[in-house]
From TrEMBL:
<dbReference type="Pfam" id="PF12146">
    <property type="entry name" value="Hydrolase_4"/>
</dbReference>
<keyword id="KW-0378">Hydrolase</keyword>
<dbReference type="GO" id="GO:0016787">
    <property type="term" value="F:hydrolase activity"/>
</dbReference>
<dbReference type="InterPro" id="IPR029058">
    <property type="entry name" value="AB_hydrolase_fold"/>
</dbReference>
<dbReference type="InterPro" id="IPR022742">
    <property type="entry name" value="Hydrolase_4"/>
</dbReference>
<protein>
    <submittedName>
        <fullName>Alpha/beta hydrolase</fullName>
    </submittedName>
</protein>
<feature type="domain" description="Serine aminopeptidase S33">
    <location>
        <begin position="63"/>
        <end position="183"/>
    </location>
</feature>
Length: 288
């Protein structure tokens, strides 16, 4: 009698399964900056829709007019970026590490997605300009994984910053979906259907937010960093991005032996990061 409900229930179950599958896990911040001998101030500021973002403000030992804003990746948090904050602090920069919405100690805000990560970057920059204008005359935004893709998206939308560093970014959401849903290839059209639904949920077409496309719209210096042992986002994505950029202000750095989360290995090559910053920062700040 109620057989007509079965298709509706199956569709509902299918949609719920998609949401659960793509939900970002919330991991607690297990360390504080003091574990790396970094002095810090715990802060919270409003993001979009009035929800609070948690952050650590690490002021340079000597007065600096440059702040490095660091954003983690999917399912990560600001404590996982501390190995990256340490060399920036040692180089004399202010550092702000933030938890994206639905991550770490930040409040929940709907369904997580990469464009919302980019919105959180904008909220952080606005907070810095209001509360630390002297220390935030120059800005460098650093993102890892999904945070790296969000960094490139924010940069393409002319976020107020001088230079951008994207670590372990994917090239296109379509490639990510194909890799993640590879086991569903036995069902013709299912991956395309799921991809279409995800695009509808986040409110963006994949082509619009794909790093391989947004990178070409950026007019500020960009450094792309990737480990050649990355098992999550293969080096081939990095090579696609480097090929797509083809600009003098976009530089690429491969780190031997580094996996997707080998943030600590970047410190071993930090002289190259500093060379990039010193090469472009003064020139780009005069264009802001």
């Amino acid at each position: 009698m109620f057989y007509w409900l079965i298709p509706l229930l199956l569709i509902a179950a299918f949609l719920v399964a998609i949401h659960i599958s793509f939900r970002a896990p919330r991991c607690p911040n297990l360390e504080q900056p003091t574990a790396y001998d970094l002095p810090f101030k715990l802060i919270a500021f409003k993001g979009l829709q009035g929800t609070l973002l948690s952050a650590w403000w690490i002021e340079a030992a000597q007065k600096s007019d440059t702040t490095v804003l660091i954003l983690h990746g999917w399912g990560a948090n600001k404590s996982m970026m501390l190995p990256l904050a340490k060399p920036f602090y040692a180089a004399g920069f202010n550092v702000l590490l933030i938890d994206a919405h639905n991550h770490g100690d930040s409040q929940k805000r709907g369904v997580s997605n990469m464009p919302k990560f980019a919105e959180d970057l904008n909220s952080a920059i606005n907070w810095l300009q209001k509360h630390y204008p002297t220390e935030n005359q120059k800005q460098i935004i650093v993102g890892h994984s999904v945070g790296a893709a969000a960094t490139l998206l924010a940069a393409s939308q002319d976020i107020h910053a001088n230079a951008f560093i994207a670590i372990s970014s994917f090239a296109h959401p379509k490639l990510m979906m194909q890799r993640y849903l590879k086991r569903l290839d036995v069902f013709p059209g299912l991956v395309t259907l799921i991809s279409s639904y995800v695009q509808w949920v986040i409110g963006y077409r994949f082509d619009t937010i794909a790093p391989v496309n947004t990178l070409q719209q950026i007019h500020k210096p960009v450094l792309l960093i990737h480990g050649d042992a990355d098992q999550v986002i293969p080096l081939s994505d990095h090579l696609l991005l480097c090929q797509a950029a083809a600009k003098q202000s976009v530089e690429c750095l491969e780190i031997a032996g580094a996996d997707h989360d080998s943030i600590d290995k970047i410190e071993l090559h930090f002289n190259k990061v500093l060379n990039f910053i010193e090469k472009y920062l003064n020139a780009s700040s005069s264009q802001n």
